[in-house]
Known about the structure:
The protein contains 2 helices and 5 strands.
Amino acid sequence: MRDKGSNLVYSTDGGRVKPSIASASVATDGIVRIRRETKGRKGKGVTTLSGFALSETELKLLAKQLKQKCSTGGTVKDGVIEIQGDHRELLKIELEKRGHAVKLAGG
């Protein structure tokens, strides 16, 4: 019989289950790429940093420290740090101090 408190609608009982993005390991070549982007942001520029081999919590902590260094806002989306404004040179110097291999990408 069905339990009145159950909200289960359908179950494959462990059939084809895709691993979640959070549990998937990050594949990177060890180079942090810094680029400036404006696409999809109504002309507002942001600096994006990708290629970190860090966990989600470490990435958020690093993003917080970099935002404080640039005195601006930002976020972490899908393993990419977004910092508001064009801060490529400052971020490159700061990440090299922290021991990361850095490359300026894009225009």
